[in-house]
Amino acid sequence: MGWYRSPGFRGLAVAATDGIIGTAGVLQGFAGAGASSSTLLVASISALVAGSAAGFGSKYAELAAERDAERAVIAAETKDLHEDSSDELAELTAHFEERGVEPGLARSTAEQMFAHDALAAQLETEHGITGPTGPAEQYLGAFATALAFAAGSALPLGILLAYPAAWESWAVFVAVLISLAITSVLIAISARTSVPRALARTITIGAVTMALSYLAGVIVF
Fold this sequence. Notes:
By secondary structure, the protein is mainly α. Helix content is about 85%, strand content about 0%. The protein is elongated. It has helices at about 10-30, 35-85, 85-100, 105-125, 135-160, 170-190, 195-220. It has one domain.
């Protein structure tokens, strides 16, 4: 595994939260403007598609840039080893000594690691790279992020589809806050942080976003 880190459960939960807040904000804005159910449906689908595509693109660009940087480091370390491996061995020895290893043992450890795989030893100890990132991983990470965003966006859309004739912005407001509470708890648990703080933070952001969006719709129209 290289520098790339898959979104993981917490990252996917965050993307889903973004989808919930983003789509709910768009719908509240249109609802504040007095939009019809059909207009709200189009707005919801548009927010889902656009947000998912944007999430895919931004995550792909992030992971692709990380992979490019990783490949540059690997190329530089390979070049340094070919030019002067003794200097790289000295650097690895110094690395262990700085972490409290006795000089003789540090040298012996560095030599053994060099004998096994000099490049891997340099990459892992100096840069934290345990293996090159595969080209497919940036696509998989981007797709997972987009899918999580779409899943979050689907909640407001689902409410609209379930009750198109009895659309009430307050109902979506309440449903979205409940969904945000669930995702914030999951994020806090996965990160081993305070659940109450995560709840307060996420719900506040969601409520303010929807309130401001609704107000904007009312003011504009």
